[in-house]
Every structure is written in C-alpha cells, then in structure tokens.
Batch of 3 targets.
Target 1
Amino acid sequence: MTEPAKVRTCLWFDDQGEEAAEFYVSLLPGSFIETVSRPNPDGPALVVEFTLAGVPYMTLNGGPHYELTPAASISVLTKDQNETDQLWEMLTQNGGKESQCGWLIDRFGLSWQIVPEILPQFLEADDKEAAQRAHAAMMGMQKIIISDLEAAFRGA
C-alpha cells in the first residue's frame, strides 16, 4: 500500500464533493478515487480523497459557508487541440461556463485553465514581437485554438 499524500489541495463544496470528485477522475488518465469518508454509512460523503493525473486532492462537503472562486484553479497542460477540445467540452457541459484565455468554470463552480503545451512556448519565445502577437491572440480567445495562436505567432 502506498503512503498517503503528505500534502493535498482541499476543495470545499456545499454538498456535491463526491459527485465532483467522481467527475474529475473521469477526465484525465492516471486519476482515481482513493478514499471516501462517510461518517453515516447511509449519508453523504464528508471527505473524498482522490488523485487527478498524479496530483492529490480532496473534496470536503462543508456546507454553504464558503464558495469556490477563480482565485484557485486547476491548470491542465494539454498535448494538442483534440485533448484541449475534449476537456473543454466535458468541463463546460451541464452548466459549466466559458471564460477567457483558456479559463472556464465547471458545473460545480471550480475554475480550470486548459492550456495547450505550445502556449507557454509561444508566450516565452525569444522573438518578443511574435510572443506579443501570440499573447494578443490568446487574450481574444475563450478556448485556446492552437492554429490561431500559431498564425498570430508567425504574423500571418
């Protein structure tokens, strides 16, 4: 048996923590539910510990005292447009909301950044004018479209 994670991010939910954790682990390979703490065997989960693509998290059904905000988000580096599109679609369905520059809020209120791995390379390029063009293009997008970034970077 592996040792429990020494550090994990806790996501506070009113009462949908278990449903959210189950949804999140369905999104990315290498994700799974670790433990479910249910003080009343017939009641809702209090805490769900899970791993999301190798990163430990937990949900806490703590009631309506706090709400998730974009001040904390999960950032996912995607390998290509197909992965970007798939994650974007899954996370925005059933009440999720698109934002800008690759940000969205899922149906549970958690903010995500869906970032194609090429984006940081464009933004940090030695060619500062090309990097600025890519940045300007990104600022006008909701979901990141890699081909549009590439065109802006090239000056096309």
Target 2
Amino acid sequence: MAFHPRTQYASPQSEINMVPLIDVMLVLLIIFIVAAPLLTHATKIDLPKVDSTVVNMKPETIQLGIKADGQLYWNGQFTRETELESLMQEAARQTPQPELHLQADAATPYENLARVMALASKKGLGKIGFVSRPEETAP
C-alpha cells in the first residue's frame, strides 16, 4: 500500500488547525462587505420645506338631553324628533365626528333611549356616551 511510513508512528497533534477557521471567516467577511451596501440603500429626494404647525383637532361634544316625558334637548335647546334627525345627519358629516353625550332622566323609559340611540347610529354617529351623576355617599 502507498501509505507514508511516518504517519503510523507520529504522535497526535496538540494544536488546532486554524486554516479552515480562517477560510470561513474570510468568506463571512466577503459576504458582509457585499451585503452591507444593499441594506443601507436609500434614494435621495429633495423634499420641499414648509412651515407646519401641529393641528390639534378635538372632536366637538354634543349634549343630548332626554326627559322622562320624551322631550329632547340638543345642546340645551328644545328640539323635536324630526329636527333631531337632520341635526344628527349634519353632525355625522363633520370632521372630526363629534361625540354624542346622552343625558337621560332616571325615569326615562328605555324605549325612548333606545330609539334615540338607534337614530344616532342610523344617521352615522358612532361615538355615543352616557352622562350620569355619581352616586353620593353618606358621610
């Protein structure tokens, strides 16, 4: 056989062969050098310069009062249900859309409250909240 006669009697190597590690590191270095410009690619755009101020548009709140006898008050003014439809439709077209705060008497039938909420939803008012007075505790 064609074996080298010294390899049978040679002692094991006690040091790590660094050549394969260096080859791997060089390949990784080349990959990073090629890939780095691809990651930072940006297109230069000449944007216009304008003076802009922050517009803080807070939605308006509409107070809708409902009395126990069915009377309706739009922001404190008496209104009929037919007028209420047009007021709600006009409010739904505003940007940003106002919040509708319902203030109902404690003795108001649920039917009246449900009818007003259904009308508001049908006209496009999506932000509806209930206003109540906190319960007073005895000292």
Target 3
Amino acid sequence: MPDDFDMDHLNLLIHLLDDPDQEAFQQVSNEILTLGLPAVEPLEEAWFNTNDNLTRKRIEELVHSLQYDSLYTELEGWVASGGQDLLRGYMIATRFHYPNLEEEKLLADLNKLTRSVWIELNDNLTSLEKIKVLNHVLFGSYEIGGEITDIHIPDHYFLNNLIHSRHGNAVSIGILYIIIAQKLNLPVKGVDLTGNFIACFTHIPSEFKDDYKPTNEVKFYINPFAMGAVFTRKEILLYLEKAGIVPSLNCFKPASNIAVLKRWCYDLLQAYLDSGMKEKAKELKSFIKILK
C-alpha cells in the first residue's frame, strides 16, 4: 500500500456506504474509485464485517470497478509497448476472469514446466528435433490436451486452469505452447488461421528478442492442439479448400502477440455467449476495444 495512502479517510468513506441516498452514495463511490487498487483489500475486509445487504452489494460493485479499471489500464500499457511479452498479455487476460489470480504461483508452475523442456534440449538438435522435445514434454510427460468441444467452455481459456488441470482448447494450448517455446528462445509465433489456431517456426534471426522479425518468414507450421503435429503451407491450403474458406495472408503469416490475444478474446466472447454469460461478454467487448 502506498505510503501516502490515507486509510482513515478510506474507512470514513466505507462507513458512509450504507447511506440510502443514491446521490450521496455516488459521491462517496466516486471518491473511493479515485484511490485505485489499494482500496480493494480494506473494502473486502469491510464486506466481511457487515451484514447489511446494501453495503455488501455496493462494496462488491466498487471492488469490481477498481479491479477492472486497473486491468484495462494495464492492458493499455501492454498494447502501447507493442505487446512484446505474450505471457504478460495472457496473464492480464486471465485476470479478466480471475482478478485475484496468484500470479507468482502460476509463474512458478510455468517456469517448472519450461525447465522440464529445457533440460532435454541442446544446441546440436535441429529445429524439428527441438519441437519434438517440446511436444514430448507438454503432451507426453505433462499430458496437456483438450477436446474440440472445449471451445464452448469459458474455463478452458484461462492460463491458470490450463496449467492446473492440463486441459484446455486450441487457442489456450496454442498460446501456452508459444510462450514456452519463446522462453526457450525457439522462434515460434502464433498464426491466426481462420477456423483454427496454429503456430509456426520461423527462421532464427541473428539476435533473438521477444519482438523479433523473422528473416525468411515461416520454416514450418505446428498444430499444438494436435499434440504439436508439424505440417506445411500446402496442407493449410488443403484444409482451407475443404472448409470452403478463401485463403488470406493472415492464414499463413506469423501474427503479432496483440493479434493472438485479440483472437483469444473473440473466441472467449463466443464461449461466454454460448454459456449465457451476457454480462461477462459485455465487459469483454470493452477489453477487446483496447486491442484494436
């Protein structure tokens, strides 16, 4: 909590939350909202210490607004920086549904998984051999997987659920795959393939960075949802032809991290709508606007 945070003043404002006058409440509410995230914990404590339903409802609304205002600000910062760190973006996106996410524990679990791959890699392996190692650990040792029907289940979109249950859908597994590959300095990017979500292995540039630009575009394609199966551009064309989809450049080229997260959002939006979660869908639309 900031040194200059006035706890006494916040406590006074919290005590005024039971005022039945809506105009008076609005003034108190606006003042609490200016205090930002440090006000969340005292508000939650106040929620437990009151039995007044009106006060509890108002506290819940305030906590929700404080958390989401902060989340949107953080997402705006990530986009402004070019969305270079996909993991950071995915963490922010996961907190959209889980605002109290234990990030440190999740990062520790993710690092443990990444290390399991790292210890089996060496510089003498070819690009394909390195991908085979990654596939072996993720889909063999860790048994990460999912089903086609998972796209309709909102829980399967979030990083914490995927890491803990080892069960996800095409887009969540794909993003995890890309994140781990990039942590291992493997030049893997997402591809926003219409009707699917895949990854690609690009030619390694002279200096690898999160915002690297492939020197010769795609070396080969990977389908993380199919246990990391490797395929070519010709097979993408065949898939599009069978699906009756007109090919576009986005179906073949590496996508930016912002485009990857936007794709995740649109798929989650449909899952919310399919599940009847209209309020979450409405909030997610505000989230998506930041990514445009």
